[in-house]
Design brief:
membrane; transmembrane helix; 12% helix; mainly beta; 3-stranded antiparallel sheet
Length: 94
């Protein structure tokens, strides 16, 4: 279920978090939600894990990237999973 995030209901985001049985539910961090972003118009030599990490950390927290065994993306876009703080408003441009 967490892999399919983000979830929404009635145009509102549902923030989910994995918890352990020993955790106190009152202190579970529900400030971050993972999203996939698509990055277009990069040259092939820039579609790698290093560039994805830089861009992902610039926008939020880098989580993962869709890549092949060599750590590259060979499509017209690069799909990167990032964590965004849902308590901070989105900026218009960086």
């Amino acid at each position: 279920m967490l892999e399919g995030c983000p979830w929404s209901f009635d145009k509102n985001i549902i923030v989910l978090s994995q918890i352990r049985a020993s955790e106190n539910l009152a202190v579970v961090d529900l400030n971050w939600c993972d999203f996939y972003i698509y990055i277009y118009n990069l040259s092939l030599n820039m579609m790698n894990l290093g560039v994805a990490t830089l861009i992902g950390n610039r926008l939020g927290k880098f989580r993962d990237m869709d890549m092949d065994a060599a750590g590259c993306s060979w499509s017209s876009s690069m799909r990167v999973r990032i964590g965004l703080n849902v308590n901070v408003p989105l900026t218009h441009a960086i």
